[in-house]
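This part of the workshop introduces the protein records we will be handling. An example says more than a description, so a record of this kind follows.
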Amino acid sequence: MAVKGAAKFLQDFLKEESAGGVVLMMSALAALIVANSALAGWYIDTLATPIHFTVGGTGIEKPALLWINDGLMALFFFLVGLEVKREVLTGQLSSWQQSSLPIFAALGGMIAPAAVFAAINWNTPENLNGWAIPAATDIAFALGILALLGSRVPVALKALLLAIAVIDDIGAIVIIALFYTPGVETNMLIAAAVVLAALFLIGRARVGSRLPYIILGVILWYLVLKSGVHATLAGVALALTIPLKSRGGDTVLEEMEHSLHPWVAFLVVPIFAFANAGVGLLDIEPSALLAPLPLGIALGLLVGKQVGIVGLAWVATKTGIASLPDGISWVQMWGLSLIAGIGFTMSLFIGNLAFASPEQIAAVKLGVLSGSLIAAIAGVVILRSAGNRPA
């Protein structure tokens, strides 16, 4: 019964992620259309609109874009944290036998793209802070593409991509915490640590009520934001305090994940995509794609992901550390590595952390969009071809 329940959960999860990926694509396309139309001025002005939120004389004032990137995306990272915790405790990453192949593939898929980016931008040191941009994989976009291929893609390949993307998310969280946190306000960070400790105690007590997690989670987000650490990491920290089950036997973590998933997949991430994917293409010369910053990102996603994922997966299988799942061929692994080259959400997010210059951020968007688009098309071609062959 437990195995059937896990299979049903994975099936529902993949369906929801796939549908969310389609909505994500539509949001990105809408942003591109608006940014290259007569509405471009409205688009830019709306995202720059300052929004005030004050309680008891203490508050926050940020433009709408930063409320989306620092506020709404905290929910995205909270969901990522819940998924990571569940996978490590009960899912694809709960044993070395299950996790060895995706761990090696994901490590390769982070290291090689970063190396490609650094090699191309070595002589432009002002760009090197963006080394982590092509290391990310957009799970919703990637699974949305796989959904379009239907039965040509075996469920085992989708599960492997899901596991790789989860490990990739762990890597992205660590990278953001270590490399994209410029300075900290000690008092706020200490206060955040106290709130986090209280959350861990509540979690250890297996409290099933959502209210204490919500109230303390909001306070934690505010303190982390004011501390200088990127506020979205508060979402991950909060997720790690959520218990698998309450004292009464309720599956707290899984229920939170299920209830939050539609909101993140169909509201939070599409809003982020619409706010961040809009780049003016009308005045861009084709040669702009060959500038070091967008070229490094595009080739990191397109070439680095292939070399890293397939390369380290091959080494892991040849040394006996891991093995390919039954029914999956190396051609399908090649296709998977290309689909993993769709960086989008996390790549754009890291790009906003890495650079402040509007010109550099525009170049990041160009590199992410072009690299992800080419990787998606190439991956579909390879997987369609592989789907017609015996494994």
Remarks:
- The beta strands are 50-55, 58-63.
- The radius of gyration is 21 Å.
- The mean pLDDT is 85.
